[in-house]
Amino acid sequence: MTIEQATIKGAALSVKATGGLDGSGKVKRATFNLEAGLLDLDRYLPPPADTAMARRARTKRHAGDPMAAIPDEPFDLSGLKGTEADIKISIGGVKARGFRLGRIGFAATLKGGVLNAALQELRLYGGNVSGKVKADGSGSALGIDAEFDVAKVDVGALARAAQGGEAKVAGIATASLSAKGQGRNPRALVQGLVASAKLSLGGIDVRAAPGTLTKLDLAVDLPGVDASPSVAANLVYNKEPVAISAKLDPLPKVLSGKKFKAELAVDSKRLKLNYTGTVQAQPVPGLAGKFGLDVPSVGGLLAWVGSPLPKDQPDPGPLKVSATLAADGPKASLEQATIDGKALKATMTASVDGSAAVKRFDANVEIIEADLNAYLPEQKDKKKTAKKKSAKGSKPAGWSEDPIDLSGLHTAEGQAKVKIGRVRYGDLDIEGGTATLTLAKGVLKAAVAKLQLAKGTIDFNATIDGSAASAAIDYQLNVAGVQARPILKTFAGTDRLSGATALQASGRTKGANVKQLVSALNGKGGFSFKDGAIHGINIAKTLRNAGSFGFGDSSAEKTDFAELSGSFTIADGVVDNRDFKMQAPLVRLAGAGKVPMPPRTVDYTVEAKIVASLKGQGGGSGFVGLPIPVKITGLWD
């Protein structure tokens, strides 16, 4: 049979073909030549349908041995051995599913059971794809030898076609692929496959990505299905080179869902990272091996990734992290972790057991030394920030009535303990103490014991009981000898009050939201500041002058006192104080009133009395001995 000339013409189709088939002999002989212009297949193809069968095919997975999904029935090589062919195809271009291909040139010959196919050109978005495949079926097994090259393809144009619009990536891609294998059946062919691939991307521009990736060279080596594959990448990120390498167990083991070996390394000027061990994906993700991180300069690393430290903040210097991890089925542990930096030294152990419905955890952290000021940005003026937040026209705030989600308290049980050696934050030095969190049956307990800071100690205990629909909270706080000024300066941005602080407070409440918790709060407490001062104002001098009453700009002005103290009770969210007092050489203050927290209001009166003048403290005044009341009322906001 001979096709001397065949022509197909349509609105978007023009094809000419010639050829012939001779089946008279033992070996069939075929020739075929096809020439076509631009084929607009979109005019003839229906839109893609997301059928149930297609969805099942996409989601089908083979657990255990992935090779079991590949057929092991022998290849039928009779078609290759019993046919000779000569095929040539030339197409001007193809449009289909939003993609557009340029010229296509293809040729193939089949003789003696050996098929040689060559993709001479496939013009693709400014570049070209070419390659050749040899399928040797002359013996008892099928041998495959393939090579493909991709040259200068516009990745942005390809991405726009794939996404049907604007692309978030741009660049020029060059790649190569080679694969070789032999087998009597598909499974044996895949098992014997040796392959390698290389990809080079230049002029990369990834929109909305953190930083700038300008170059990527990727090499993948598959020396055989039963050998360890490796990946090597060299890239340029924010103008600096980065080398990444990875080596894994053979692919069947990696894809089986079982534990497999892995080696990973990242090498750059800014950081060095490595991991050697095993990886498990089931029943829970986990690592078992050694992890290391070496950062020569924390400041340099942050600047490199686009988050530089403020200009006036010193570089924290080098930082090293090392860890030994373990994983066994549902159990994972951090056997030992060490953090060692110029301003940070800490160790940690931890474990998680996910074998039961409620996970078990245990963690122990020891902070040997930490200067947090070296790693955190400089504290801003909290007073200025507060003024901005309380701008005119803002609506008064209220307590949230959104339900509190207590479900997290039922997902795990265990204990986390932190031992503190020496920590500096702001103007504070913490010299020791422990903090413990315990979670069991929906009840979270927090305890801080003998936290030594600002020349005193803090002890704190709190319980959040989430075993019922509403949260029940119970707390006790004891502060002894803590200097007030560095505490207030660090956390409140003010240094107006100094003195040795004593504070005792306890309370309990219950509610399903914040508003209910505030409204149901009941408790009591007392406080005192000994041998301190109110800085920025000399109350006695101000009252004698009777010109103004407020804090001055001079830090030299202050009101020394021997004691400033009081006690309070809380009933249904209303704080009641009746014995506030301040004893100072020249002035006495007394106060009483209430602070109803549910409506966020205050109703308080402070009474001041000037006592007899000391020499040099302002002379006589008609205010001596007279009570001067100051009434404070209104909303908090």
Weakly predicted, low-confidence segments:
57-62, 385-391, 547-552, 615-621
Principal-axes geometry comes out as elongated
How far is the N terminus from the C terminus? 96 Å
Strand content: over 45%
Secondary structure elements and pairings:
Blueprint: E1 2-10, E2 13-22, E3 28-40, H1 52-59, H2 78-81, E4 83-96, E5 99-101, E6 104-111, E7 114-124, E8 127-136, E9 142-154, H3 155-163, E10 169-183, H4 186-191, E11 194-206, E12 213-222, E13 230-237, E14 240-248, H5 251-255, E15 260-268, E16 272-280, E17 286-295, H6 298-304, E18 319-328, E19 331-341, E20 344-353, E21 359-371, H7 382-389, E22 412-425, E23 428-440, E24 443-453, E25 456-465, E26 471-483, H8 484-491, E27 497-511, H9 514-519, E28 522-535, H10 539-545, E29 558-571, E30 574-583, E31 587-596, E32 601-610, E33 627-635
Parallel strand pairs: 3-4, 21-22
Antiparallel strand pairs: 1-2, 2-3, 4-5, 4-6, 6-7, 7-8, 8-9, 9-10, 10-11, 11-12, 12-13, 13-14, 14-15, 15-16, 16-17, 17-18, 18-19, 19-20, 20-21, 22-23, 23-24, 24-25, 25-26, 26-27, 27-28, 28-29, 29-30, 30-31, 31-32, 32-33
